[in-house]
Batch of 2 targets.
Target 1
Amino acid sequence: MRRQKRQPIRNKLDLTDRRQVRLMTKRLRLSESELARIVDRIGNSIPTITKEVALQRARPLTESTQIPASAAVAASAPPEPDILSESAP
């Protein structure tokens, strides 16, 4: 009698399966501990894990692009002409 091979659930991550963990860490460019921390926090759904990693990577970009309003105004103002270099003797 042949036993059927148990099919894995495709959209759930099994942290005990070394192949799945290795594939996800490569795909998401995370360490195993970072992946385990995310799974502990939000669950083992692969689409949810992928979405969370994308959100974490997007947060520093939006936070670092915030500049003070005075710096933005100064950067967008046209340069003032140099009066000393334009005067002829």
Target 2
Amino acid sequence: MKQILSVLFVFLFVFSLSFAQLQPVVDKDAVYTKNPNPTVYVPETPLEEVFGSNQNIFGPSGVRGRGNTFLCTTPKKLIEHRLYLNAGAGTNMWFVVYEGASFNGTYNLVNSVNMPNSGPGEGWYSSGPIDYDLQAGMYYMIYTLFDVNANYYNQQAIAPYPIDCSFGQLIAGVGWNWSPVYASPPNPTETPTEVLLSGVAYYQTIVTDDLVPVELTSFTANVVNDFIQLNWQTATEVNNQGFEIERRTEATEFRTIGFVEGNGTTTEQSSYSYLDKTFDQGINYYRLKQVDYDGSYSYSNEVEVDVTSSPTVFDLAQNFPNPFNPTANIKFSVPESGNVKLSVYNLVGEEVAVLVNGFSQVGTFEVKFDASNLSTGVYLYKLQSANYIQTKKMMLLK
């Protein structure tokens, strides 16, 4: 008896492996279901929406293609689609997406996945992970082709019709008089021959994700001719207003140091660069804050660059920001050790502040000037040592 049970267990285990592409059979009494509020979900989280039901069973049929047609009104990323079938034998499956500019026009094949040796059995057959961007204003036939007789399922007389979903509307079933017959590989184009507005939704699951506003493919920082050059590339952009460049050190928080305009919406690769002339000695960290036209934003990963070389010139940088109120940062470089003085003067030559006055090592430094007790106007700030003098203007605007 134990031997019989052992053989039976092995048989069931091996048999179950043949259903690797299937999900468990659902309740045969299940009614039509879909996301009750498709516009409310966690951003950047895959959303599964189920259309049709398994309450009406049809097949076998010589027309072996089933699915649904959708009008996209909100751009989304299609990452998987499934069809509920009861295949009587093992089948070669094609999961396809056709795109068209009008409901009754010609549709072009834009995505296809071949799943050979699927089934047999009843359950959800899956395309597996895919990646296709659904565009607003376009029509999509999303369906599955199979080369064996199989039972398929739908729900008819759905009211109201069409059916709203997170990315638009389901407007027709794929699988009546004009359903494509099985073809391997799928035909490059399809043209429907009958308008289907009779309220058919085949039992199908559509899985989508939010489109990434900007797909960043690279982001680097390198020392080039005594400056730090940032370079980054994007593969695609959607409503991209631009990038704020942010920098920090081990001792400071991120702050914005510049802005580079984006390319709005484009499917072409774009390259960007930014030259930072006001970095600190030591390790500098950079990140990009990508900003959409609607004000939403997201951050890139951080990149770092180690600046350990000593400055070769005596230099006084322009204060940041300028104009300022009431504080500004002033950066300066000292190529040789010695006494250094950094002072602020009004336009009549009166010294109103002393920021640095004493011995300095070689290096690049940054100090903060607080003008809370001064009036709006133009001021001069001067850096001097035994061998060098530099002066610049800054504007206090209260």
